[in-house]
Design brief:
The complex is a heterodimer of chains A (about 160) and B (about 300). Chain A is α+β, with helices and mostly antiparallel strands and about 160 residues long. Chain A has two domains: about 90 residues, Nuclear Transport Factor 2, Chain: A, CATH 3.10.450.720; about 55 residues, Archaeosine Trna-guanine Transglycosylase, Chain: A, domain 4 (Roll). Chain A contains five helices and eleven strands; from the N terminus they run αβαββαβββαβαββββ. In chain A, the strands form two sheets. Chain A has a five-stranded antiparallel beta sheet with strand order 1-2-3-5-6. Chain A has a five-stranded mixed beta sheet with strand order 7-9-10-11-8. Chain A is elongated, with a radius of gyration of 17 Å. With about 300 residues, chain B is of the alpha/beta class. In chain B, the strands form three sheets. In chain B, strands 5, 6, 7, 8, 9, 10, 11, 14 and 15 form a nine-stranded mixed beta sheet that branches. A four-stranded antiparallel beta sheet of chain B has the order 2-3-1-4, covered by helices on one side. A two-stranded antiparallel sheet of chain B has the order 12-13. In chain B, helix 9 crosses helix 10. The interface between A and B is medium-sized, with 33 and 35 residues. Strand 4 of chain A pairs antiparallel with strand 7 of chain B, so a sheet runs across the interface. Chain B: Keywords: Methyltransferase, RNA-binding, S-adenosyl-L-methionine, Transferase. Chain B: InterPro entries: MeTrfase_RsmB-F_NOP2_cat, MeTrfase_RsmB-F_NOP2_dom, Nop2p, RCMT, RsmB/NOL1/NOP2-like_CS, SAM-dependent_MTases_sf.
């Protein structure tokens, strides 16, 4: 709750555009883990706050916007969690259809059980780590596959 | 209900000569507002998936031919907010006529656009959709609690092109100039009134709030934020000429604005050039009035203006 109040602080300042090196690191992770093509994100910048990366449309007006006291800029895309990058469910709902790897396809009953119980036993031929949840034709968001368990990060 | 009917009839009688086919207007007030949603094409361009999904949950969905990506839903008294399609951000429930100001704005990729009174975000997200997330939208609202709802909708729909700010609209800082500004102004909401459904009109509820004064402050600041040649769209969901033509007339007397014609996808009537003995600028005929009983949605007023170079 405290974090939400802080995020909407009226004195909030602009997030920092990431360096080329940091961008390459983010794109490398997205490609390696999920098979996202780096060109998919060419129309976008990545902006950084203390623990998050935001996806923001690339624009020639970026400098002009700096004088505004902003609450949010763009789509919350990745969180830094214990040295790992965790994609948000919002990001995966939007871009999941372009992923080619580490997609977990669940039937409706299993999805409902995961949403309800937050953690279920699960085994699959996948490297442990964050995965994209898909059910029928829809991309639902993010989960963590680890030690024979699936842990939901759905909102 | 009889009391509500008589109150509404008394209230709207001042518009008897203004509203076309007044009897059918009064009859329409007894029906609940139709329910619509917009398909979020940033996530899917397949209406069949959404229509099938909603049908499984008991909704009957019909496309609106005149307005692309809009669908009408029955039953209209059940919220779409609990459906998977809502959770996944595939749909944005909004009234059909709420799309009109964005049609007048005609947003294009690469532009920088200000939505001055943006929350909860129906028009901001519609702009993002029409520009394929490639125009920058500054979505402003003076209330922090309403910004929270706006941010939740942006996240739900997966929009990356929007910056949110919390300023009083009439004091929005002048440092940044915009290609286009949308003022969907706070208003008395007469266009959304239905007997026994919405209860009192906002005008009654808000008591002595001087809405035209607020609206005049907003439209002048919006104009001053435009680059030369930039476009301003002013809209309300009310019938009241004092909140519509009189506000635009005020701007036309204060600034060198030009009223523009625009193509609307729904039937409309020209703006007024006179109300209760007070003349308005003759160019206000180019404004558009949309009446609830003619469009099967909330009544609206929309005008498009250009800042003179």
């Amino acid at each position: 709750m405290k974090r939400r109040i802080k995020k909407l602080d009226p004195r909030a300042s602009w997030p920092r555009p990431v360096s080329d090196e940091e961008r390459a690191h983010i794109l490398g992770y997205l490609e390696e883990r999920f098979g996202f093509s780096p060109t998919l994100f060419e129309p976008y910048l990545f902006l950084a706050t203390a623990k998050n990366y935001w996806l923001f449309t690339r624009t020639e007006h970026f400098e002009a916007l700096q004088s505004l006291r902003v609450q949010t800029a763009g789509l919350l895309f990745l969180r830094k969690v214990s040295g790992y990058l965790k994609p948000t469910s919002a990001a995966l709902q939007r871009f999941g259809r372009f992923a080619t790897r580490n997609i977990v396809i669940l039937d409706r009953l299993t999805l409902d059980r995961l949403r309800l119980e937050k953690k279920i036993p699960f085994s699959a031929e996948l490297e442990p780590g964050y995965v994209i949840l898909k059910c029928e034709e829809d991309f639902w968001g993010c989960a963590l596959y680890i030690s024979g368990k699936l842990i939901s990060y759905l909102p | 209900m009889e009391k509500a009917s008589s109150l509404a009839e008394d209230y709207f009688s001042r518009y008897q000569d203004l509203i076309p086919n007044y009897e059918s207007f009064l009859n329409a007030l007894s029906e609940p507002l139709p329910l619509y949603f917009r398909l979020n094409t940033l996530k899917t361009q397949d209406p069949d998936r959404v229509v099938r999904g909603l049908a499984r949950q008991g909704f009957e969905v019909t496309p609106v031919e005149a307005v692309p990506w809009f669908f009408r839903v029955e039953p209209r008294d059940i919220s779409l907010g609990n459906t998977d399609e809502y959770y996944l951000g595939l749909i944005y429930p909004m009234t059909l006529s709420s799309s009109l100001p964005v049609y007048a704005l005609d947003p294009r990729p690469g532009e920088i656009i200000l939505d001055l009174c943006a929350a909860p975000g129906s028009k901001t997200t519609q702009i993002a959709q029409l520009t394929e997330d490639q125009a920058i939208v500054v979505a402003n609202d003076k209330r922090l609690d309403r910004i929270t709802a706006l941010v939740a909708n942006l996240r739900r729909l997966g929009v990356a092109s929007v910056v949110t700010t919390v300023y009083r609209g009439e004091q929005f800082p002048l440092g940044t100039t915009f290609d286009k500004v949308l003022v969907d102004a706070p208003c008395s909401g007469e266009g959304r009134y239905r007997k026994g459904y919405e209860g009192e009109l906002l005008f009654h509820k808000e008591g002595h709030t001087n809405l035209p004064a607020i609206q005049k402050g907003l439209i002048v600041r919006a104009y001053d934020l435009l680059r030369p040649g930039g476009i301003l769209v002013y809209s309300t969901c009310t019938i009241n000429p004092e909140e519509n033509e009189a506000v635009v007339d005020y701007l036309l007397r204060k600034r060198q604005a030009e009223v523009l014609s625009w193509e609307a996808p729904l039937p409309s009537h020209p703006g007024l050039t006179e109300w209760e003995g007070k003349p308005f600028h003759p160019e206000l005929v180019k404004a558009k009035r949309f009446y609830a009983h003619e469009i099967g949605a909330v009544g609206f007023f929309v005008v498009k203006l250009r800042r003179q170079v």
